[in-house]
Amino acid sequence: MPPKGDDFDLTPEAVLSDTSNKMDRAIDAFKRDLTQLRTGPCHHGDGGEC
Question: Which of 6, 18, 41, 45 has the most beta carbons within 10 angstroms of its beta carbon?
């Protein structure tokens, strides 16, 4: 969850959850990049998985 002024929750649970979500997105993007390097661009053009 992105910061919203002074209301951003900095509890350990919130920080861990936010970090976990960001890491999941980064890993998914990395896997897509590796797949694209191996196979070439997706022919569907939607940016999703083929």
Answer: 18
